[in-house]
Design a protein that fits this description.
Chain lengths: 86, 603
Amino acid sequence: MKLSKLLERLSELTDADRSEQLKQYKQLKKTLKQLRSKQKELEQEIASETNSDHCKELEEKLNIVSTQRRKGLDLLKELRDTPGEF
Amino acid sequence: MALMRKLLLPAILLLLAYAFWLSSDFKQIAAGVAIFLFGMMALEDGFQRFSGGILERLLRHSTDRQWKALNFGIITTTLMQSSSLVSVLVISFLSAGLIQLAAGIGIIFGANLGTTASVWLVAGFGLKVNLSAYAMPMLAFGVVMIFQKSSTWKGIGWVLAGVGFLFLGIHYMKEGFDTYSESIDLSAYAIPGFRGLLLYILLGIVATVIMQSSSAMLALTVTALAAQQITYENALALSIGANMGTTVTAILGSLGANIAGKRLAGAHLIFNFITGLIAIVFIYQFLIAVEWISDAMGIADDNYALRLAVFHSLFNLVGIILMLPLVNMLVSVLERLLREPKTAIKQPKYLNDAALESPQAALEVVHKETERLYDLASRVIAHGIGWLKHDMIETKDLDQLVENSDMPPSEDIDEAYATRIKHVHSAIVHFVIRARERITGNYAEDLESYSRAGRDLVTAIKDIKHLQKNLLRFIHSDNHDIKDAYNHLRIMVAMVMRKIREARYIDDHTEAMLILDHALLQIEEDDLNSAERIEPLIRNHRISAEMATSLMTDTEYTHSACRHLIAMAKILFTGRDSSALNISQDLELNEEEMATIIQKDSS
């Protein structure tokens, strides 16, 4: 294990708040990645969909995902800007 | 087995119809039993309205000691001159939860002694209170009181009507048995010795059941004895039989009662049979004692009526002295023999103490049990809105489902909640509390989130319960607008349940979350459009203002149920732990964002 990683783990153990924040940050990044891939998937599906009802549903889902992603990116920025860098 | 159960009721009804066709006497007896049982139900309903009130306090105060309960039984039976009536009243007190089993047993013991008081009054003074003469007025007064708004008046009304129906039922039974009682010839079986004793006891039981009155049986015995048709020993045997036969009324009464009432009828039966057995075994000793007491009291040798009263009192008193110390044992025996039907109440299937040892195991069993709770709840919800679970969630097209609705029997949601949900939910909550005493950190948070899912589920059921009242009425309405509006609410619930099913069985967790978020969006869209849907209906007089207010409130209940179901499904079916769920909650769209998406779609 690299020294920086070791120091990060040690810091996590001694600082519970920071550990929680770090966990939240990692979880958020993971969720954003999933949302991004879902967004791409939906865009492709909409492009090939011919049924108007289904297309409406896919567009609503896409709107949900993009709004959630936007919120998530704002939250990620907020977490980055808080004291105690990642 | 299931086929047998299905065929049982039609078979009983057919058999009854055939018996009615064959014998008009049987028809009268059966009608008497039915009216009697209806009276029991009315009594129970009436007494339930007094639970927690003055009657309960009075009863509790009068029966909180064994001697008090005994005195209560003696005094009330002496006043009413009917141990059968007292015993059925006590059964209904017990069924309504106003008194405890031990107190009930005390009263029944007292009633047995009280009934001998009536024998004394009849034999000594010819005094007879005929309560049945008041039955018809009771029925009429009772029904008038039932129509009153006040709960107390209603309660008194149900009690009066109940007693009235009891007497009416007994009257019909007696009328039906009249043909048989005319043919009772007590002298025809006069056999000396022990065999004769047993035969007359049996005759006493049968005749009391037929006449539905131990007092009438004793009167008949005294007459037969005075006419020297039977011997003195035969008369004693008949009085023992009458004491045993009188329990049949209580057993009949307990048919309409709950398990507590049945236990009391059991206690009555056990007491009277044991007392009877003691009297049979020690009959000659009792005879000597009766002689001695009668002589001491100055009762003439040929005054058989009073000597019979002495015997009746004596063997009941001996029975009480012997059985009173055994009341608690009798209670535990009856509780063991007559158990609460367990199968009706759903029990937790996965929770176990061993799982408390490991956080993963605890989490796993709570997850499984909460999923099971959802399965149990989805049936309650489906039946609550008048559909079969399978049809609502899986098979049919929703529009087709509305048109060809196979209505299940309307679900009593309170009962379904008590038998299918409450116990399992309580067990989950209790298990989570115990587990959280040992587990901290993420596992504890995950456990808590499952507990929250259970709460969401219970809230959804309560919302459906509120919705059900008007829904089951309006979906059969001739007014198509209100019918369509309520069917729309059912479709919303069905849509959410189907989305939950889709999310539950999909491997892609992000997609599962998106399905549920999309369902939530549809609910919010429906919420935004609900005013637009309802207002034109009122404006154009297509539905009444009352219908409209019901519809508005029920639309709220529907949306609330759907939101809680979705919240529950996000915890249970998206494969996320508490930290992932927290992030999902942070990213959840607020009302404004939802409205923006809805407007964007509609433009």
